[in-house]
Each structure stands twice: as structure tokens, then as C-alpha cells.
Design brief:
- This protein has 307 residues and is an alpha+beta fold.
- The protein folds into three domains: 67 residues; 141 residues, no CATH class; 70 residues.
- It contains ten helices and seven strands.
- The chain has a seven-stranded antiparallel sheet.
- The radius of gyration is 23 Å and the shape is elongated.
- Keywords: Membrane, Transmembrane, Transmembrane helix.
């Protein structure tokens, strides 16, 4: 079990389970009514309460994790160190050339599509609210759709179409929470778009590594000038597997942003930005946890290489 088994993944699963539990209740309530004196009403309110509780807990936990990237990074490192079946390789076995060989061997033979061009206006400026890849990196389309659905349900109750005014106001309050999360995510997306066009840019070598189990993809970034093994590499998790399928196993990218721990970086590869909501991590190859992380991402290693 590797870094892909991060807490945010379990929170997403809990939220999806909550939605599946609440959906039948909403459907029954819309057609049969939300009256407490009926079996249909009791079923609707019970399922919506349980589902809403799970969704709310998952949303709250995800918000705390997004506000504290340091704790998320440390949890991911501990997960790899404790649960990886491979012993961490030595620093001498985790050189750029060795990792390049691992990235090349793990690359599939499927044809790679060119990444979509960034959304720009008539003057060529980046328009973040029209960039579907950027919005998807922060899950804004799904959050916005859920917010609109809950708001329409609450409005129907306020207008006495079904459910009553009091219950409609509860749904409107829930949609207000979704609106707050959407605004927070939109602000993060806009800030990342600013990083993508900032003047803090430098060329960096990158390697594409995949988790052996979940298939989550990571970029390993090195300085483009000089010996790459002389500086500590940076690790950046890619937001979606679809983005990773468009990438070659290695290359050179123009990386915008300040390459420091916890900062937001936007690599430009093949003329398009690679959006991700994850923060960059500086790896310390003298640390057993970080070497265990790289060993895990390299995939199965022969016994003679670990000796």
C-alpha cells in the first residue's frame, strides 16, 4: 500500500458512499413527500441524514487536509515507510540514471495524445475559469453540480413544491456550505493560474513514475543544469491519471513557481500547463522515509539490486 492510499482518497470514498445513501431518500421524498408521519417520509429523512452526515464529515476532513498540506505529506511518507514490502534502496541506487531507467521501463506502449491547449482570451492571456483541466484538478465541476442540485431542492421546499419551508431552508443551508467550498477551490485555482504565468520560471528535467498498485502518477523534478544528482529532487503528484497518460517517461519542462517545500508549481510540457492541486515535496535521500517512497515508486526491484 503506497502513497496513493492517502487520507483524501478515503475521504472521497466516504463522500461517495454518503451520496449513494442519500440519493434514494431524495428521490423518494420528491415523489412521495417528506412528511414525518409516513413510511416514505421517514425513509427519506433517515437516508438523507445518514448520507448527509457522511458527506459533511468527508467534506470537513478534506478541507482540513487541503489547508494543511504538511500533514498530508507526512502521512503519505509514513504510509510508504510502514507498508511498503520493499526495503528502501541506498542513496547510491537512487540516482537520476537509475530512476530514468525505471521510468522508461514502466511507460506503456499506448500512443500518447497531445495535451489540450490552455484556455486563453483574444489577447492570449490565460483564462482560468474556462480551463476544464484546471477546474477538474480541484474537483470544482462536481462540487458545483452538487451545490446546484441541493440548492434547487431547497428552493423547491421554500416554494412549497414539496417538503415544506423549514426543510427547504435546511437544503439551502447545505448548498451554502457547498458554495463556500466552491469559492475556496476557485480561489486556489485562480492562484495556481497566476503561478502558471509568473516570471519565476526555470527549466527542469522531469521523470514520470507510477505507483505499482494504484497507478497514481508523480513527476520527479531535477535541475536542468549540471549533474542532477548534486541537488535534492522535487516530487509533484499529478492530479489525474488521464494527465499522466499524455506524458512521455522523461523530458524537460519549464517549471513556473518557486521550487521550495510546500509551494505550488506548474510545469509546462509540450506547450500546455500540467495542473495539479498537490504541493511539491523536497526529497531528502538521506531520509529512510524518502528513500522508501522512491523505492516504492520505482516498482519491483530485483534482489541483487537491494543487496
Amino acid at each position: 500500500m503506497g502513497p496513493g492510499r492517502a487520507p483524501e482518497k478515503w475521504l472521497l470514498r466516504v463522500g461517495l458512499v454518503g451520496l449513494f445513501i442519500a440519493t434514494p431518500g431524495v428521490t423518494v421524498g420528491c415523489f412521495e413527500g417528506f412528511d414525518d408521519g409516513t413510511e416514505a417520509g421517514a425513509f427519506a429523512w433517515f437516508t438523507m441524514f445518514i448520507g448527509g452526515l457522511l458527506v459533511g464529515a468527508a467534506a470537513y476532513g478534506g478541507l482540513l487536509l487541503s489547508l494543511n498540506p504538511q500533514s498530508r505529506k507526512e502521512r503519505r511518507r509514513r504510509t510508504v515507510a510502514l507498508r511498503s514490502l520493499q526495503a528502501p534502496l541506498a542513496t547510491a541506487d537512487l540516482t537520476y540514471s537509475t530512476l530514468l531507467e525505471a521510468a522508461t521501463s514502466s511507460a506503456g506502449d499506448a500512443p500518447r495524445q497531445k495535451p489540450p491547449a490552455p484556455a486563453t482570451d483574444d489577447r492570449g492571456r490565460l483564462v482560468w475559469w474556462r480551463d476544464r483541466a484546471l477546474l477538474s484538478a480541484f474537483r470544482l465541476p462536481g462540487i458545483a453540480g452538487w451545490t446546484v442540485f441541493v440548492a434547487l431542492t431547497g428552493l423547491s421546499g421554500v416554494l412549497h413544491l414539496f417538503g415544506g419551508t423549514g426543510r427547504g431552508l435546511l437544503f439551502l443551508a447545505a448548498s451554502a456550505c457547498g458554495l463556500v467550498v466552491s469559492v475556496f477551490g476557485a480561489r486556489r485555482a485562480r492562484a495556481l493560474a497566476r503561478v502558471a504565468v509568473s516570471e519565476d520560471v526555470r527549466p527542469m528535467r522531469w521523470l514520470l513514475l507510477h505507483e505499482p498498485h494504484d497507478g497514481e502518477a508523480y513527476l520527479l523534478l531535477y535541475e536542468a543544469d549540471g549533474d542532477p544528482d548534486e541537488t535534492a529532487p522535487l516530487l509533484l503528484q499529478i492530479a489525474t491519471k488521464r494527465q499522466a497518460r499524455r506524458l512521455a517517461p522523461a523530458g524537460v519542462a519549464d517549471v513556473h513557481g518557486l521550487p521550495r517545500p510546500g509551494a505550488a508549481l506548474v510545469p509546462w510540457i509540450d506547450g500546455a500547463p500540467l495542473w495539479t492541486s498537490h504541493r511539491v515535496t523536497t526529497l531528502d535521500l538521506t531520509s529512510e522515509d524518502d528513500r522508501g517512497l522512491l523505492t516504492y515508486l520505482m516498482g519491483p526491484v530485483p534482489r541483487d539490486a537491494r543487496a
